[in-house]
Predict the structure.
Amino acid sequence: MGKKSQAFGTSALILAVLLYAVSYAGNVKEPCVAGAFYPADAKELSLMLDGFLEKANPEKLDGKIFALISPHAGYGYSGQVAAFGYKLIKGQPYKTVIILGTSHRYPFSGASVYPDGVFKTPLGEIAVDTDFTRRLLGKEPQVSFIPEAFKEEHSIEVQLPFLQKTLASFKIVPVILGDCSLDDCKKIASLLKEALAGSADALIIVSTDMYHGYDYEEAKAMDSLTLAAIKNMDSEGLYWSLRDEKMQLCGGFGVVSALILAKGLGHDKVKVLQYTNSAQVTGSKKKGVWTVGYASCAIDQPKGEAMLNKTQRKKLLGIARNSIETFLKTGRKLEVSESDPLLAQLMGAFVTLNERGELRGCIGNLIGAGPLYLTVRDMAVEAATQDPRFNPVALGELKDIDIEVSVLSPMKKIAHPGEIQLGVHGVLVRKGLRSGVFLPQVATETGWSKEEFMSNLCLHKAGLAADAWKDKSTEIYIFTAEVFSEKELKE
C-alpha cells in the first residue's frame, strides 16, 4: 500500500470514529438483562447488593487495587463472589473505571470502545468518560467502535450496579473484546498503558466467567489451572492454553490484556479472593449438569520496600510527641540524640497533627536542614505552635492528638505533569518567588482528579493562578513520602 493510500485509510478511520462519537453523544444505553440477571426494581436490587457486600469478607491487601477480575453471570449464581472484589474498593476515590467485557452475541475481531453517552441501570445513569475513550479510539485498526457489540451484551452491564453501590462520582470506559490474537491483546494493553499515563485514580475491571461444561470435577480441575496461570501473571501461557482449550475464560482475552498491562506497569501480584461454580451454588454436582465457574481476583499496586522499619518509625513518632510535650511545658526544645545511621541522614519530613479525625496542624521541611530525627523534632513543635491556620495546641489537647510523620524522598524535577502519579507522588510547584506543596496523601484523602489536585495546589498553596501548572515557566517537582502515624502503629 502506498503512502497516500495509508494516509487516506488512517483519515477515514479517524473520521468514522468521530462520526460515531457525534451520533452517540447524549445516548442512553438501556440495560439488557435487568429483571433477568438481577432485579429490575431499584430497591430490591439495592438490598440484594447490600446483602452480598455485607457477607463478603475478603482478605485485605497491602496496596491500592489496580484491577479486579469479576464474574458476569446472574447475581443468584455469581453475585456473592463478585462482592469480594467490590468490597475491597468500596469508598475508594476512583474517577475512571475501564471495564473489559467480552462479546457473547456479536462476532468480531479486536476491541470495541463505547465512545460517549451514558449507561443506565435501575440504580441510575453512569456517564462514559469521553476524555479517556478519545485516547483509545483512532489509534489502532483493532480498536474501534462497533455498536452491534453492545446491543444485547451483558458482560459490561452486570458490573455497573456493583460499581454504583461501592463508588461515587466516577465515569466508565466500556470496552468489549471479540476474538483477539496475542498481538491484539498486546496492542490493547499498550493503548491502555498510554491512556493511563500518570493516572492513579483509574480502576480496571475485567468481566469474565470461567469453565463452561457438564462436569463438576472437570470444572474444579480446569479452573484451578486457570487461576494458577492468572496468579503467576503468565499472560502468554494463559492465552495459548485458552486457544488449546486446556483452560477456559469466556472473557479470556480481556484477562490476558489486563495481565500484560499490569505487568508492564510494575505489578507483580494477583490475589484470588473467592471462587465457586454454579454446581456448588445449586448443590447439583452430578455429571451432566451444566456448570460455570466464577472467580473474583485483585491486582494491587506494587509496593516498594519501606525505607524505615517499625522500630525506626516508633522512634520518630516518640521524638515528635516528646518534643511537643517538652516545648508546651518548658518552652524549650527537647534534648535528644540518635545513633541509628538512617535516622541521622539528611532527609525532609512533615509532621501532621490530627485531633478526633480533623486536621490540627501540619508543617514540614522539604529537604531537611539536619538529621532526620532532628527535623522531625523541630517540625512537630512547628506543627503544634506555628501553623497559621490554627491556634497553638494546648497541653491538655495533646492526649487527643494523633501524630503522623511523612519522611520525604529527594525532589525530582519533571518536564510534564503526565509523570505525576496521584496518591504516589507529592508535588511542589514553583514560579518566581511563589511555591506550594501537597503531600502524596492529599490526592487519596480528597479524591481529586489530577486537574483538581494541581489547580488547588497552584491556587491555594502557591498563590498562583489555578492553571499555572500548565505554564511551561512553572517548575514542577515530584517526591514520594513514607507516611506513618501513631494510630496506624497501634492497630
Q: What stands out?
A: The two ends are 65 Å apart (CA to CA). Residues 1-25 have pLDDT under 50 and may be disordered. Residues 3-300 form a domain with the Protocatechuate 4,5-dioxygenase; Chain B fold (CATH 3.40.830.10). The chain is about 35% helix and 20% strand.
